[in-house]
Amino acid sequence: MAVKQMEARGVFSPPMTAPHANDPSPTTPQPDTSVWRRRASRVAFGFLVLCAVQGTGRAAIHMLAPDGGAHSIAGLDVDVEGGRNLIAIFGQWGAVQMLLAVIYWAVILRHRQLVTLMLWVIALDQLLRWFEGQIKPIVVSAPPPGAWATWIMGPLSVLALALAIWGARGAKQR
Q1: pLDDT for 80-103, tens place per residue?
Q2: Are 65 and 72 in contact (CB under 8 A)?
Q3: Residue 147: CB atoms within 10 Å
Q4: The whole model's pTM is what?
Q5: Disulfide engineering: 163 pairs with which of 20, 44, 58, 92, CB 3.0-4.6 Å?
Q6: Are 19 and 25 in contact (CB under 8 A)?
Q7: Coil vs helix vs strand at 62
């Protein structure tokens, strides 16, 4: 009987202390991060749209330009033995870029639940391009747009991926 009275008086409970300003407690309202998570998801989605537009343009140039962009954009000498093969490789690379761009557009227009997956693909693509550029650098008088764009798009793609993951986690918690 005495134990029950002691429990009622709070003898076995931890001592009461004044709440601290930074201490989250059940009575302190938690900040609503859902607005920021939605904005993060929108930024990530916008980055995917930017990549789709860029990919479509690059693919069209590589596929439709007479030299595939090898000389006119990248500055590679195609008037050498094997130059026609170089032009063909650029054209085929454009076809692969167009395939990726079509997949990006399909995700943007019909399958938005795959945005995070596409951002993984973009981030890994940028990482692999950078890695290959370090192993097999292109020797030209001025670096082609793809060489310096990787230094910009790589970190941006990782940031967009992080925003997409963070935004998606907030949607699951609601």
Answers
A1: 999 999 999 999 999 999 999 999
A2: yes
A3: 16
A4: 0.74
A5: 44
A6: yes
A7: helix
Q: How many helices (H) and strands (E) does the chain have?
A: 5, 0
Give the HSE-up count for residue 8: Cα atoms under 13 Å, Cβ half-sphere: 5
3-state class (DSSP) for residue 161: helix
Q: Are 171 and 37 in contact (CB under 8 A)?
A: yes
Domain-embedded: residue 158:
yes
CA distance 38 to 158: 18
At 14, the amino acid letter reads: P
Number of domains in the chain: 1
Tokens of 24: 């989250």
Cα–Cα distance, 44 to 158 (Å, whole number): 10
Taken in order 54, 59, 64, 65, the sign of the CA dihedral is: positive
- For residue 91, give its domain range: 35-173
Written as six digits, the tokens of 110 are 């019909």
Structure tokens at 58: 């690059």
Q: Which two three-digit tokens encode residue 93?
A: 């690379």
